[in-house]
User: Fold this.
Amino acid sequence: MKLSSKVDKLPYSPIRKLVPFAEQAEKSGKKIYYLNIGQPDLPTPEPAIQFLKDNIPEVIAYSHSAGMEELRKHFQRYYQREVGVDLPLSAFLVTTGASEALIFTFSVLLNSGDEVIIPEPMYANYIGFSAVVDAVVKPITSRIENGFALPSVDEFEKLITARTKAIMICNPNNPTGYLYSEEELRQLAEIVKKHDLWLIVDEVYREFTFDGRKHISVLTFDDIRDRTIVIDSVSKRYSACGARIGLVVSANEQFMDAVLRMAQARLSPPTLGQILSLGLLQLPDDVIKSMVKQYEQRRNVTIAELQKMEGVIAPTPSGAFYTVVELPVDDAEEFSKWLLTDFDYEGETVMFAPAGGFYINREYGKRQVRIAFVLETDKMQRAMHILSVALEKYRVMQP
Amino acid sequence: MKLSSKVDKLPYSPIRKLVPFAEQAEKSGKKIYYLNIGQPDLPTPEPAIQFLKDNIPEVIAYSHSAGMEELRKHFQRYYQREVGVDLPLSAFLVTTGASEALIFTFSVLLNSGDEVIIPEPMYANYIGFSAVVDAVVKPITSRIENGFALPSVDEFEKLITARTKAIMICNPNNPTGYLYSEEELRQLAEIVKKHDLWLIVDEVYREFTFDGRKHISVLTFDDIRDRTIVIDSVSKRYSACGARIGLVVSANEQFMDAVLRMAQARLSPPTLGQILSLGLLQLPDDVIKSMVKQYEQRRNVTIAELQKMEGVIAPTPSGAFYTVVELPVDDAEEFSKWLLTDFDYEGETVMFAPAGGFYINREYGKRQVRIAFVLETDKMQRAMHILSVALEKYRVMQP
Assistant:
């Protein structure tokens, strides 16, 4: 009566590890600025909520396993308009959040023991999903000194073995906020062609780019069209994480046929979230643009404050709503815990995600935290001030 | 750039195989009685839909990975009241439909190559989920001549090997409608104890029992408490399939801890479906009771008509809303297709799920179909009349 041996490889969520300490701090009356998770504070656009309320059917039934046809058509048009690719309807399959899109993709591509190369720090759940299918994540470390740019082709090629099936990136990156350049993406394209690999790109933060920079989707590269898989979601783009509506996109018919069979086994994605998404995808473009503008201001404030702090290394992220910074502490997890258990400034403190959990080579992340700039600018400013006071106090305390 | 070898084992959904022919028939103006899928026609209870509309939050955010605490507490009380078991809150984890509950359970219990014994005919997606984790379903055939009762202990023991990790049943059964007796469940309890196996029971149709018979949950057996896992869902009970809210229930802490880690990787079950479910679980008991009464009447009409037809073997199901019947035809899949492509009676026809897809030993199901009694009694009556006319015509046509 044993469990599967895969279970030992299932990580506990790094962003939830400190939650019990936060709960304790809340109970003791401390106010916490939660910068540890990617849960935006912006309201889900009200017209879409109204659309949902107006369109709840009498019988909340299963939808098509690939998602409502009308919703898939909306996504198809969005990809034509915003991403610049013309794909058949069969290239789109609606999933229960990007999470399920990732599980389907890993399940369809990877046998037990197969390898996927992913730059670290990486979204921690990639490690969890690979454990579920008993595959192996080979990390390739991107460095804070380089602003978390893509490692060189050489470094990728050193990791490729007979078991390597895919390279995966997140663009813009969670947790680093790094936006990959066209040159870097072309580098990846050449590697996957040369070594006959799949390229999986998580583009859920696609819209979140700053300083006028434009996101480039690998779907626009015709020469790797058949080996490219894109993961997408409405969660972050519309502040609708709880809708659990994601998307797998690929022009590879054989891949999509296998994904559809997996999708049929689980019957259908959530109907209510799909109706909400129908409302979301009908919103005018400026809804997202104004959201992104707000995140850019939050980033500006956050990074400016961080770069003033002595001993803090804070690259400027060009996308998403995260940044990974190095703190002048020996152990960022201990420090993050201390912020919750032993520190407050005028009754307030901050919560970060220690970055160790985003690395497989944990030592690289030992002094780093991920900060999600998901609160209003004045709150971000205040949170950064609290951090600077905390760092000062922590420094003095150290022997 | 190959796909995983698991993909070859992923079945196409047997209930969707004939869908293109149905679409064609609809286009040609034929009216179809859809008895092929378990999508009830009853409205989702209106007070719960109103509750949802009244409680959509401003930010549709992730919930706790195990589901909203309030919802888990509702389930906990429901299990005390209706199932008769007192379990800690940690024994309940909310999933994206029973489908995800099954995927989590299979992933946590089964390594690649491990075996699970399941009576056939079985819910076809069990085969799909086992393919996803690269496990092996060992079917044990239940016979229509015995009304699909549980096979003997001897037959189970013949199938147990060193790789066997679990026995699984669906009670009441989809596709047969068979309701297992206390004696049969005790038999299973003794086998799993003797051979140190897990017992997985899919109880999503728990409330659907007829003729005054009572469903017995394996959770009430104290001697196997630690090796028992129950799968549940609000889908069928409340006609809310599209909500995608299911449940894993187990008193085994190690198992639930592993399931929680899987749940954390996919972040959260759908928030909107959970809010709807909060509304559903506050409904008075008689809502379900009156639904079940309607299904009992539908069953009565359906079975009475079937038992009148020459050459049809139709056991009387005591639960769920399905029945598997044997038809006087050589190939039930061919016949089911013919009903859509070549037959009509006054412009109308019926659609069934050929039972072959519910068997691994397909020859046992060759002459059988699954009929879901999910339409009103007069429609069921009419559909059965159409079937009897069709069988007569088909008989005459045969050489």
Observations:
- The first strand of chain B starts at residue 31 and ends at 34.
- Chain B has a mean pLDDT of 95.
- DSSP finds twelve helices and twelve strands in chain B.
